[in-house]
Amino acid sequence: MSKVEKIEEEIGKLAPDEMRKIRDWLDEMLEDQFELTVEFKASTERGKRDIAEGRTRVCRHGG
């Protein structure tokens, strides 16, 4: 049994509120890791340059 399978099995035994706490913790951890990647930083800088240089478009939803 892999580590992931063991973790899944244990999580399956938790109460719903405990599962939500695990989900929230995992979401936060992944978000923190994503924020720190070189690719994310580069993407953010490209976006800032595009906005500063007027390379934007308006996105209209619905209606």
Count of separate DSSP helical elements? 3
Order of helices and strands: HHH
Q: Into which percent range does the helicity of residues fall?
A: over 70%
> Radius of gyration, rounded?
19 Å
Number of domains: 1
Multimer state: single chain
Classify the beta-strand content into a percent band.
Answer: under 5%
The overall pLDDT, averaged over residues, is: 85
N- to C-terminal distance: 51 Å
Low-confidence stretches: none
**Main beta sheet strand tally, sense and closure:** none
How many β-strands, per DSSP? 0
Shape from CA axes? Answer: elongated
By secondary-structure content and strand pairing, the structural class works out as mainly alpha
What does this structure look like?
This protein has 63 residues and is mainly alpha-helical. It has one domain. Helices cover 71% and strands 0% of the residues. The protein is built from three helices and no strands.
Give me some keywords for this one.
mainly alpha; 63 residues
Task: Please render the helix and strand layout as text.
Layout: H1 3-12, H2 16-35, H3 38-52
Task: Report a brief summary of the structure.
The protein has 63 residues and is mainly alpha-helical. Helices cover 71% and strands 0% of the residues. It has one domain.
